[in-house]
Every structure is written in C-alpha cells, then in structure tokens.
Amino acid sequence: MSAKHLKARDRVLSILYGVSSVLSLWLLAVLLAQEIKPAPGYAIVFVDIDQRAYLAPPCFHFLEKHDENFSRMTLREARELGFEADEKCQNEGAFFQEGRWAGLPMLLLERIGMLSPPTSRWNSDGTWNW
Prior knowledge:
38% of the residues lie in helices and 20% in strands. The chain is of the alpha+beta class. It has a domain at 33-111. Strands 4-2-3-5 form a four-stranded mixed β-sheet. It has a two-stranded antiparallel sheet with strand order 1-6. It is elongated.
C-alpha cells in the first residue's frame, strides 16, 4: 500500500473509533439512567411564615424548634406565594424521589407488566410515603 492509502485508512479508522466510542457511551447512559422524580405540586408541605420557606414533613427532625409559625399547604401554593424550599430539607433530597435504575431494560419490563412500577413517595391526596 502506498502512503496515501495508509493515511486514508488511518483517517477512516479514527472516525470509526470515535463514532463507536460515542455510541458506546450513549448506550451505557441509556442502559444505566436513573429516574428522578420531583415532588408533585399537590404534595403537602409545611410553610414557615417567618423564614418564607417550605419544608417536607420528613424534614421536621432537624428543626431546632416547632412553633405556630407553620402553615400547611400544597407545594404548588407555596411556590405561587413565593416561598422557597428550606435549604437543609432540599439538600437531604426531600423534594425528589430517586427511582430504580430506569434504563431501557427496566422500562421495557415495566411496560410489559413483568416489573411493577416503584411506589411513589407521594400519595394522590398529597400526603407523603416516607
């Protein structure tokens, strides 16, 4: 083979390696993706009027005091009124539910009924399954 043919062959191989690497990473991401669901707007939260913050019910364990400043409302209402998530509560992941590894095989098994969907952290009435 001539030097010209070797360069062309090397270029083609380089492109093929690059494309196969990208496809491999994409396939790995599809197979190993984890489902993360945010809290629905109907979830019940407790609002601290003084701090202008809302908390998930499971977050009360790290509060220094419990007083009458807490009101109960939905997450949607709290956000519409301009309240922000309590930082500690949010950092503990209270407003998200990490699901199972929801890669393509798991989703297919769920779709055909061989695998039941994971239990939601939130009930339809806004209460929490914690």
